[in-house]
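Reopening this ticket.

The earlier resolution said the output was attached, but the attachment link was broken on my side. Pasting everything inline this time so it's all in one place.
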Amino acid sequence: MGDGGAGLRVRVVAGAYSAVLVAVLVGPLLGPGYLLLRDAVSTPRSYLTGSALGLGDSAPRAVPQDALLAAVSPLVDGGLIVKAILVLALWAAGYGAAVLVRELLRAPLAAQLVAVTVALWNPYVAERLLQGHWSLLAGYAALPWTALAAYRLRGSSHTFHTLRTGGACVKRVKPMWEWRVRGAAKANEGRGRSRRGATRRPYAETLGGWAALAGCFAAAGLTPTGALLAGITATVTVRRRHLPGTLALLVAASAPWLTATLLSGAGAEPSDPAGIPAFAARAEPGLGTLGSLAGLGGIWNADAVPDSRTTPLALLATLLLLAIVVSGISAVATAETGGRESLRIRRALLALAGAAVVLPALAATGWGMEVMEWLVVNVPGAGLLRDTQKYVALAVPAYALCAAAGCGALASRFRRTSTAATKSNETTATALAATAFIAFLVLPLFDLAWGVGGAMRTVHYPPGWRHVAERIDTPGDVAVLPAGMFRRFPYSGAAPVLDPAPRMLPNDVLQTGELPVRGRTVSGEGTRAREVETLLLQGGSAQDLARLGVEWVLVERTTPGPLGESKTTLAQLEPVYADDHLALYRVPGPDPTLATPDHRWLAVAAHLLWAVMLIGGPTLAVVAQRMSRIENRPPAVEH
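Inline output:
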């Protein structure tokens, strides 16, 4: 009971520390209001439009997250949902790192806290928060849990094989497994259990591992990139014979965006090769591209970085992070702690970390960009790879392991040099090393605190948005002015933000998908939205607008942007609503022949499959774990 109490205390402290760091990170978002920063758009209410299901003209990059918000926001405020998902994802990333090092390295509490800090207090998290990639951070959070699911699958498979063959476990995979292996030799003694009963627990372990993996894939699959991150992690960590099942689960978890890609046809169109240099990893001051990526930085958008990363502190922070990582590489790669399966997982994660740093750096070179441009032009769906810095997330589980192992390495060195090397002294040395590591990680990136220096804050929408949504009472598409997808509202701050109209309004809002990046424009996949935008800017007729299937035009009055000769077109439309912020017009007689085939039921079915995995995976994993614990109890001793 004492050991169990100590283990519970370690888990509680690690979880609480992760929660404290998250509160420091996103504190300004915990109050009322909505997240509206660059790509992050939360709204009070979303709608299950065709675009939310990924059936619009553009590639389905925001599924199933948009459908999730549309399904839940009628019951719970959409802004609260986004903030809850972001906070939960960050906490899971930190606590998952602690559990990972505890399981694979048997790391003590102090080392687990270092792993939490590595996972949460780093440039990758800062940059993705500033870029507004809240849903991508759900995929980031799933990575340590995916590695743990693979580890448990490996362990349960090893134990089951041992029981089937009647052999003994040579390596100590997990302490609680020892009793079951020893008990297998006495399966028919004592309580008269059969061989079938003796092998019941490994089945529960295997079931729990698969269920946990399914839940990880679904959570990461909130965005297509997140699904790829978790899928890559699982592919390199599971056993080869588990690969077919792993890929099947990954495809099922990715069903929303895969189905939308097939139904809409947007994914079959080549991406603009101009997106490759635009989204290539960026070199930070004094680091170069490779150094920036090794330090978990280097996002393409120079405006979406903490101020400290634009100073010599970026070099100092990177050197300290890499020194901490290097201090534990040897232990992670060679230590027998946790058994053979733990060692294999750790080595796989180390190799993955190297690839996650080197490959994006190569993709940012001249010939690397040429290869990437060929891919996005000739391979459908390769546009998902253009923001290569996203994949640096794959290095974080290994970084967390190395940082935790580095604490142990320093403590062992103290034990070898100390004349009074007691367990108390070793614990103190580990705590001191952990404290130093945490300080080295936090202090050079001090402005990550409180919403990355206050850049992340909540906003409040004017009531006109709600009034416009209420006035749209027919199913036609909506065109929006000014042209472009990004806005600068008086209430949204200095950074550009994605237009909230597609999530605010109950109908599909046409968007070109064109992105202004580094002084150039990256084209989107669709064509109809571009035709509509061009028509409005050229002052085309209302009849031409109706011919393109547009029934509503929304003018957002308080944001800069090109309007062209749109006044000529608007004069031909019926005014429906107007205030200081917004104006809504109705287009007479939209062309009904432009209605697309109704594939919504297929898209909805794919989203339901994903939802079942998201909810059922973790639930089944918990049930299987409890079954294992019950079956693992030693038999009562009869007197």
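Reporter confirms the inline version is readable. Residues 477-589 form one domain. The radius of gyration is 27 Å.
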